[in-house]
């Protein structure tokens, strides 16, 4: 089982990113579940979402404790939340940041998802949309296929800028 | 069609397929996405139902009662405090023998303010005369909602049915979902005692001490008929759509020495615990209760039971535990109160309950006792 934990702030689309990711995995003919951990959500508050991908049906509902991959949509969360908690030894962290980030003991990938969203004018209510571009980065990492990432985005959003941003992220991510 | 959906969206999709004439709902918190999605279906013209947004859950149930008594199919959904607010009318719906279907997203009650999973809301309606079913996956939420209409409207039953799904854990999780073409799985609703809307008339409904108990006995007779009707709905569902359900969901129970008894999503998590316990040589099984009322016959003799309770009767004990103990007095049982207010309960925790079970005792998970 491949387990992913997504850190974001309320309103940034972390929950939707989890759902898109599960949908893409499902289109890849795998079993997947996406679960947000949230309650009384507030804009700007830290939100955690979980995605499990497996070749077998998934029975586990409890939260992911040892993720293989951690996605951080807002690097400022790392000031207050221990995003690395429980990460597996060979785990990877994908961070939305224009600058390289150094974290001890784990593999870190960075990509400027905010810049990518702004470049294609993917902005809603003044906030750049991060949940569709991040899917492109995850496809580049091989978590899901590129085709399924695009199909999942198109299933949920009709605005083609979402696909464009995902494609840009796919090309831009350096593994 | 194979797709992915949340528990909420799955219930809405099933309701759409069941084609109720009326959906009445209080649209504000603690309401769920279920009625939001149904409202979208109705607005988009994908569902030919009268959608009535009302000012309270009490009114939502009342509107469903008013619709149902004219002989048309009706549905509502709620959660936690909303369910409690309609409590009075739940008795009325069952007493008037109206086959209303309701989805309830099981959530804790305040204070403290908590929106997470717990079964106390449904347990508080235990004695209203509603059939209560509990589900554990998105697919099961969809399938059971379809079955609920067929069960409720069976003329040998004519009792309302509540489909319960765990708040957030199941209502908000995204899993795969196979929707079906229901065909005539749910026959047209025929309510023998419906009001003739073409010739409206009012009758005094005062029922004196000489008769009231007879109506209550009729409810109980319908409840006693219901296991056969629910089983038939499940068998017919399996025949048509290939997915099998029963009063309980058994996982490796046949040769088990210890059974983990639970309801809702904890029952799936328990199956992972069973797999791990068996690797250690502990012959465990998982028995997930799907029907809470009517309460099913259980094959539990000569086994240790570890009962997971997500609801509690203060001054007495776990509510599921109580149902099992009063039906099976000789059962050897370890009562675990776990998962209240969304308390995280993992498969490792459940395996620990089994390893450290103290038969005849009660244990509050997470509390030093």
TrEMBL record, chain A:
Keywords: Oxidoreductase, Pyruvate. Its EC number is 1.2.7.1. NCBIfam families: PorC_KorC (TIGR02175). The keyword Oxidoreductase applies. The keyword Oxidoreductase applies. Residues 10-170 form the Pyruvate/ketoisovalerate oxidoreductase catalytic domain. Pfam families: POR. GO terms for molecular function: pyruvate synthase activity. SUPFAM superfamilies: Pyruvate-ferredoxin oxidoreductase, PFOR, domain III. It comes from Methanocalculus taiwanensis. Gene3D superfamilies: Pyruvate-ferredoxin oxidoreductase, PFOR, domain III (3.40.920.10). PANTHER family: PYRUVATE SYNTHASE SUBUNIT PORC. It is an enzyme of class 1 (oxidoreductase). It catalyses: 2 oxidized [2Fe-2S]-[ferredoxin] + pyruvate + CoA = 2 reduced [2Fe-2S]-[ferredoxin] + acetyl-CoA + CO2 + H(+). This is pyruvate synthase. It comes from the Archaea. Coiled coil: none annotated.
From TrEMBL, chain B:
Residues 256-350 form the Pyruvate:ferredoxin oxidoreductase core domain. GO terms for biological process: organic acid metabolic process; sulfur compound biosynthetic process. Residues 14-234 form the Pyruvate flavodoxin/ferredoxin oxidoreductase pyrimidine binding domain. Keywords: Oxidoreductase, Pyruvate. Signal peptide: none annotated. It comes from the Archaea. InterPro entries: PFOR_II (IPR033412), Pyruvate:ferred/Flavod_OxRd (IPR050722), Pyrv_Fd/Flavodoxin_OxRdtase_N (IPR002880), THDP-binding (IPR029061), Transketo_C/PFOR_II (IPR009014). GO terms for molecular function: oxidoreductase activity. The keyword Oxidoreductase applies. The keyword Ribonucleoprotein does not apply. Pfam families: PFOR_II, POR_N. Heterotetramer of one alpha, one beta, one delta and one gamma chain. This is Pyruvate ferredoxin oxidoreductase. The lineage of its organism: Archaea, Methanobacteriati, Methanobacteriota, Stenosarchaea group, Methanomicrobia.
